[in-house]
Amino acid sequence: MICYYRLSTSFGRAWRCFLQKSATHSCFPEHLPLCSVMAKTTAVVRHNIMLSFPPPSLLQTYQPYSRATSMIEDLHYMPAAEEHAENIMELLQDQFRKHEPINASINATEDDLIDVFRDDVKCAYTNEKYGTLAYDGNRLVGMCLCSMILNKSKDPVELDIKNLPVEMDIRKHDFAKDILNGPYKQHKANQIVVFVRTLEEIMQQMLSKYKILKMNVLSVHEDCMGKGLGKELNRRAIQIAKDEKCDYIATVATAMASQAIFRKSGWEILYEVPYSDYCENGSPVFQKLHDGCRNLELRESAASEVFQNM
């Protein structure tokens, strides 16, 4: 899916939501609710969104209480530099390859994805300022790898999502030839890359007038899953998009866990397609994903308006 949102500094519903939740517990919730989102669709890729935040006084007095929250704060966060290449590759192979549902669904091996991951690593450190690594001591336990898309066309043409070109319409096109002629020598690598790049091309054309921070990889080590690290990396990516004065931050969300993070933080779906529609020689490529995910989501969020007290 692709999703996006516009930001404001208004306070309201989230503050009331926070009071309601805190009144039912003996202590503050593990993660301070950042926002509630109200959206009214006016066009395919244009939404008027208001994000409501708790007042500054509450943010100043709020103290995280949980061990998980403390762990997240104790990690060291840094840009993805070339010196981290080996650690990034290790996390991709040992964690992302195994836990990312579409990788696991086709039983992709280290050899299947080695070339894809080499390109991911290079993209990470050549876009150093846009990515974030999370270290626990000397061990890389999480990362959010991003890159910048600068759409400089003087006459951009927005894509009509209801009338996609045949080669981009996953619902109508069989991708056997595309996979066979894909950029990598490994068949399974092409099965993944052709799918993701088709969605990214749709995203780029739908947002062809805008500067976009594209989130390429969001991965958390299994030892840190469920502790809020994915949410923190997502928050930092949104902040980078704002600092870089991007119009949008966007991603292809392939797993239920990441989709939940994006949904809860206000990202909107720009395009969504069932995995069963992506076929090779008439058969769905990705089947029985271990997390139960059935749809790929192209999600994005407007990030051009800077707000405080995030």
Tell me briefly what this model is.
The protein contains ten helices and eleven strands. It has 310 residues and is an alpha+beta fold. The strands form three sheets. A seven-stranded mixed sheet has the order 3-4-5-6-7-11-8, with helices on both faces. A two-stranded antiparallel sheet has the order 1-2. The chain has a two-stranded antiparallel ribbon with strand order 9-10.
Rg over CA atoms, rounded to whole Å, is 20 Å
CATH class: Alpha Beta
Main β-sheet, spatial strand arrangement = 3-4-5-6-7-11-8
At CATH level 2, the architecture is 3-Layer(aba) Sandwich
The name of the CATH topology is Aminopeptidase
Q: How helix-rich are the residues, as a percent range?
A: 25-40%
Number of helical segments? 10
Shape: globular
Average predicted confidence as pLDDT: 78
**Domain unit count:** 1
Stretches where pLDDT falls below 50 for ≥5 residues? 2-66, 304-310
Give the N-to-C terminal Cα separation: 24 Å
Secondary structure category: alpha+beta
> What string, H for helix and E for strand, traces the elements in order?
HEEHHEHHHEEHHEHEHEEEE
* Largest sheet composition: 7 strands, mixed
* Total strands: 11
Domain N-acetyltransferase: 75-291
Protein name: N-acetyltransferase domain-containing protein
GO molecular function: N-acetyltransferase activity
Pfam families: Acetyltransf_1 (PF00583)
